[in-house]
User: Which sequence fits this backbone?
């Protein structure tokens, strides 16, 4: 009552700022194995709770427990570990290459490797991802050559995109990886549209939409949900909640809904939250959602709860807006360490083998880098031809571009 007549403007603030002690006590972590595994044709109203919980498979002892466990073999898990380790090693080398001036820009996946690596294994050939810049694991886990990725990062003469895309904005139709657009949230409407087209043409392929926590504030996100729910589009709607959108904490874009998954409930879309640092949980939930899409049961919204350990990009310095040790305090741990411990617990892996694999992977990444650098880097060696700049957009080149090409003499 004391405030009657005086309005106050509310701006959500993160719990802690630089200099403070990291505090994630408000992140409720359910026990691994405690969240039920519904049938894929469940009525979304019966699983409302799943939009507010976190599906987890790996417990603190490294065991896989509960109804979402048991889908992957030893070999599949060992392969998954290798994919995540490869992505981490690739990131470290490319981040360094950026600091050496070999590329203008880089974005890492540190701490988020399980999300894209495990998700890829739940899709079938021909399915299409509409990714953001933080899902290179989709390519790594599908066997896309690292050299080709590096050629794109270096914008060199072997860059399949001929220097026309920002570094890390890959594209591969064959690997189900739609060209990345820097305009965030466009991925959502495109994925839903692609999925609708797949259904209209009675095809069997499904789509996966990708977005970060911050980008869900874009209207494209909400438009896509309207179309997806109305037309029961065969699409998996992925939200990667890594707690940060550059310097903006997730509470800004989330608004009052409590979780990002809860956004799906108003549209009648089954919505689940999953531990994004648990390879087994990510894969199981992705498989559930993909199967729903393939069986004409429509869209599923999945929120991956994770933490962006690295900087937003090579242009960012997170020490300006969050405590330095915040990532150490993240209660869901590190995805590579957790899968490694699980494999040791299963008796198919060891610390020695892990160290050896790290060295082998680094060697493979360095060999790929050498090969890519033979084709040039940002400021040295081979470049795409200037002529390429004019190609590949129009079926028939308009007169003004033809004139410019003549003026450039290419
Ligand atoms: C439509 C649009 N608005 C703003 C930007 C600038 N921008 C680039 S990344 C970013 C933060 C995105 O954060 P989030 O969606 O959480 O993804 P994350 O980087 O955490 O993976 C912003 C605002 C953009 N690229 N596109
Ligand atoms: Mg984010």
Assistant:
């Amino acid at each position: 009552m004391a405030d009657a007549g005086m309005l106050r403007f509310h701006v959500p603030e993160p719990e802690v700022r630089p200099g403070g002690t990291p505090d994630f006590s408000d992140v409720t972590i359910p026990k691994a194995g405690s969240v039920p595994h519904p049938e894929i044709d469940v009525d979304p109203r019966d699983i409302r709770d799943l939009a507010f919980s976190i599906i987890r498979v790996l417990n603190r002892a490294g065991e896989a427990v509960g109804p979402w466990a048991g889908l992957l073999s030893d070999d599949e898990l060992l392969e998954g570990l290798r994919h995540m380790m490869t992505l981490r090693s690739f990131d470290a080398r490319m981040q360094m290459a950026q600091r050496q001036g070999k590329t203008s820009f880089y974005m890492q996946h540190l701490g988020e490797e399980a999300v894209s690596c495990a998700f890829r294994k739940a899709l079938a050939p021909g399915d299409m991802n509409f990714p953001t810049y933080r899902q290179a694991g989709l390519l790594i886990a599908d066997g896309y050559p690292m050299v080709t990725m590096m050629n794109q990062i270096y914008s060199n003469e072997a860059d399949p995109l001929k220097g026309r895309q920002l570094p890390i904005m890959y594209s591969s139709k064959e690997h189900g990886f739609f060209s990345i657009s820097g305009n965030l949230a466009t991925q959502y409407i495109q994925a839903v549209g692609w999925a609708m087209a797949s259904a209209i043409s009675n095809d069997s392929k499904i789509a996966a939409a990708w977005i970060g926590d911050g980008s869900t504030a874009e209207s494209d996100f909400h438009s896509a949900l309207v179309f997806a729910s109305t037309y029961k589009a065969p699409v998996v709607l992925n939200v990667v909640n890594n707690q940060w959108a550059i310097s903006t904490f997730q509470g800004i874009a989330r608004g009052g809904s409590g979780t990002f998954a809860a956004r799906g409930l108003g549209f009648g879309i089954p919505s689940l939250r999953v531990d994004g640092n648990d390879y087994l949980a990510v894969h199981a939930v992705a498989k559930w959602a993909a199967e729903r899409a393939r069986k004409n049961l429509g869209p599923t919204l999945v929120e991956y709860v994770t933490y962006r350990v690295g900087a937003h990009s090579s242009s960012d310095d997170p020490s300006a807006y969050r405590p330095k040790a915040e990532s150490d305090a993240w209660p869901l741990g590190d995805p590579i360490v957790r899968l490694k411990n699980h494999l040791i617990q299963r008796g198919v892996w060891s610390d020695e083998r892990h160290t050896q694999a790290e060295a082998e992977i680094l060697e493979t990444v360095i060999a790929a880098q050498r090969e890519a650098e033979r084709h040039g880097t940002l400021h040295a060696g081979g470049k795409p031809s200037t002529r390429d700049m004019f190609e590949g957009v129009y079926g028939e080149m308009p007169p003004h571009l033809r004139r410019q090409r003549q003026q450039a003499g290419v």
User: Anything to note?
Assistant: The chain has a mean pLDDT of 97. DSSP finds twelve helices and seven strands in the chain.
